[in-house]
Amino acid sequence: MKIYITIAFLSILIPIKKDTIFFASANPFSFKDIITDLDNQDKQEVFGILTLPDQFDLDKKIPLIIGVAGSKDWSDHHLEYIDMYQNMGIATFELHSFKSRDVVSTVGSQVGVTTAMMILDSYRAFETLTKQFNIDKDRVAITGWSLGGGVTLFSAWLPLKNAINKDLKFAAHLSYYPPCIVEPNTLDFSDSPIHLLVGELDDWVPAEACVELASKMKRDGANVGVTVYDESHHSFDRLHPPRVAENGYKLEDCRLKMNDKGAVLMNLLNIPMTTPLLQKIGLALCTGGVFAERGPTFGGNSDARDKSFAFSKLFMSKHLLPR
Description:
Elements: H1 2-13, E1 18-26, H2 31-37, E2 43-51, E3 62-68, H3 76-87, E4 91-96, H4 97-100, H5 115-132, E5 135-145, H6 147-154, H7 158-164, E6 172-176, E7 182-184, E8 194-199, H8 207-219, E9 224-229, E10 243-244, E11 256-258, E12 264-265, H9 276-287, E13 297-298, H10 302-320
Parallel strand pairs: 3-4, 3-5, 5-6, 6-8, 7-11, 8-9
Antiparallel strand pairs: 1-2, 2-4, 10-13, 11-12
């Protein structure tokens, strides 16, 4: 008995640096499911890895970055950013939306784990971590890559955010090569800083779409910026050289609209893409149907990679750390 009491007492005095945190979320397929029917979505237990920085003051609340992976789930280059943030004195939370749902990858389908599910997971993690740990709720940022970049971007869309939690907002949104092909009819975004890092040659999710969308967002008052890295493909911050993703779709010419209820609309007759089947049909129409081109290129560009890490460090330092 004394041993257990001693361990419990020490765990209070010496916080665990890394731990797996479970929390309750749900499985909305679309943004519309969240905005119009959140309470009736199937429940889902989700987990992530919370890591506290090596050096922090027990008497002070600490900043946090929630990281969201792409369609291939977590990769080594994602974790390099996570390690960098920890070394800066920032806590990190690696969100595991895929493993929580027993999904390995969504490349070529995007239906097993959706952007809506991951955004809801991100906010539920935000709620849990700021209630249970010494996290400063006013210094929580979100960052993500590819699919996770879309999560990072659209977690700032106010009709969606307010349907989940009106009281919490991310202090900053840093998005790497996100899919920007969907444009909301109402460009009502958070006033928190948003920045998109994209590759000039990206033929998986085109940089041009992000430049177009950010320009319209800024015109409507959003605090958004875009950096386009020259001669860079999708996943420009990886170490391996560019290669082809055989089962991925090229979305260079695809653009879609989204109504105020969060339904993405087909380019044909404005049919809402609110089920897996309708989404597949809508994307097929947008990319050329049976003639849709597969095989986008992804991989590293050393110059863009170095610049991306440098920018990320400055961005998070500016918005999360004391000056």
